[in-house]
Amino acid sequence: MIQPTDVNLASPTATEPLTRWLISKATKRGTLTYKEARDRLEIECGFGSIGRASRIGPIAEAAQEKIRKQFPSAPVLNVLLVRKDTRKPGSGAQIQLFKRFPNRRWLKKKDAHKHHLWERVVNEATEEVYAYYNWERLYKDIYKKNYKPDPLYAEGSEKDGLPKGRRGEGNNHKTLRLWVKDNPSRIEWSLSGVRAETEVELLSGDRVDVVFNSDNEIVAVEVKSKDSNWADLQRGIYQCVKYKAVLGAQNDRLPVSSWLVTETELDGDLKRLAKKLGVKHKIVSLK
What we know:
Blueprint: H1 6-9, H2 12-27, E1 32-33, H3 34-43, H4 56-70, E2 81-82, H5 93-100, H6 118-131, H7 135-143, H8 171-182, H9 184-187, E3 195-201, E4 207-213, E5 218-224, H10 230-250, E6 256-262, H11 268-277, E7 280-283
């Protein structure tokens, strides 16, 4: 176990994985919360209990300093490290933002994160991070090894639990799919007693995991088991959008809604995406 001392948290043992995770988020136009980063450092990197999630801020600053010294013109990567409630970086980011935008002298003030232009600067810096093309070379030069995309966000197969390219579905996906079919009221109480079908073929060639048919509504459900990674969960959201559109086109007599049912929590980026696209989400546990 690695002791979470200030020295260890400022070392490459912590800054390297955090940099890699943030770069992976940059390629997906996403963000990483302080809590998510803390939990991953403890679980994946072997750190002891770090305590407050706010202790991740100095790690991000140390990582950004390494970047700034070798790549002075690079964007502020740690702007993607955000608070869960606001989905914006904390006040600690203002130091690096001022170094990036020295003409905005108000960033030097103690309460710069409360300034009315704070969100505009953060959004500008975030778009710079997303647009930057040199992250892999930057990572390799700083940490002396090739960048490897975070497996949590790697592309997965169409059916979770199977290697890409294989047909069929994993056991966990099948178990969840059949459970949802048999428990409509656990998804939404108003679905109690409705007719349920599974693996429903659409005229588009797609196959919906579960479809609930009532007198008033058609509900399409995409399930993602605990085997699904971030990329597969993201794909599930877009699958729900597609199912809703196709089912609506096939049957214009009843309204159509779509649900994504998962065994794992969606992170903040995926929650926002689902809400934006009108996809309902339900977490279930089969334990």
